[in-house]
Amino acid sequence: MNMLLSQRSAIPELMDDFAQGGEELQQALRHLRRLNRIFGASGPIVYGVNYLWRKAGRPSRLTLLDVGSGSGDINRRLLRWADKQRIEMKVILCDVTEEAETEAKELFRHEPRVTFVRRSVCELAPGQVDIVTASQFVHHFGSNELPAIVRRLMEASRIGIVLNDIHRHWIPWTAVWLVTRLISANRYIRHDGPLSVAKGFRRSDFQLAARQLEHSELAVRWRPLFRYAVTIAKAREG
């Protein structure tokens, strides 16, 4: 297992091959929602958004952009958090595949606060939202690409960004390998699930990427279950 995952895997994920797709990918997105519930994928995002919201002075309105959203399921808990805090929130889901758009629009068909755009991370407009979130997204890029991706996400935000990804460690790798085989026969899920853990970054990687940003404040927190909640806030003027 690559010396207990001491190094990131360079093997590409099936979901990164845009020549594939169709019903098999749509099924994978549905099964991924089950995995997200089992492994608490929404927790670090809610934690990070709450942190940035408080740091920004608890504004009564927030706009969020979820980059690499897939079907966007983790935002359901975020909307419940916004209701509890009495925040007027709008969420924009952003992904590049038709399959993600189809699943997201079906999942949020009765939720007017959520919209979907098909767009890549390179097409984000500067300062278009308050907070940019990216859950299990940045590990799809190479280590040398991480600083540029983080910078692009920061440029699209007015307050800051929240990254949520799995800690690269043999315990979550084993757990994901077992659970994916228990709940799904989908080729994407069984291949990409454990691989996503093997491709994960660690605290030092995020710290290195943040050093290349000016006027920002980084916080990397370890959250259940073997996840990082990475928040990078833009320094407030004055």
Q: Could you walk me through the main structural features you see in this protein, from its secondary elements to its overall organization?
A:
This protein is α/β, with parallel strands linked by helices. It has one domain (24-234): Vaccinia Virus protein VP39 (Rossmann fold, 3-Layer(aba) Sandwich). 42% of the residues lie in helices and 22% in strands. The chain contains nine helices and seven strands. The protein has helices at 2-5, 23-38, 42-55, 75-85, 98-107, 146-156, 170-183, 187-198, 203-211; strands at 61-67, 88-95, 114-118, 129-135, 157-166, 216-223, 227-234. Strands 3-2-1-4-5-7-6 form a seven-stranded mixed β-sheet, sandwiched between helices. Strand 2 (88-95), helix 5 (98-107) and strand 3 (114-118) form a beta-alpha-beta unit. The radius of gyration is 17 Å and the shape is globular. InterPro entries: Methyltransf_25, SAM-dependent_MTases_sf. Residues 65-156 form the Methyltransferase domain. This is Methyltransferase domain-containing protein.
Count all strands and give the number.
7
Q: Tell me the name of the CATH homologous superfamily.
A: Vaccinia Virus protein VP39
The secondary-structure class comes to alpha/beta
> Briefly, what CATH class?
Alpha Beta
Write the layout of secondary structure elements.
Blueprint: H1 2-5, H2 23-38, H3 42-55, E1 61-67, H4 75-85, E2 88-95, H5 98-107, E3 114-118, E4 129-135, H6 146-156, E5 157-166, H7 170-183, H8 187-198, H9 203-211, E6 216-223, E7 227-234
Helix pairs in contact: 2-5, 3-4, 6-9, 7-8
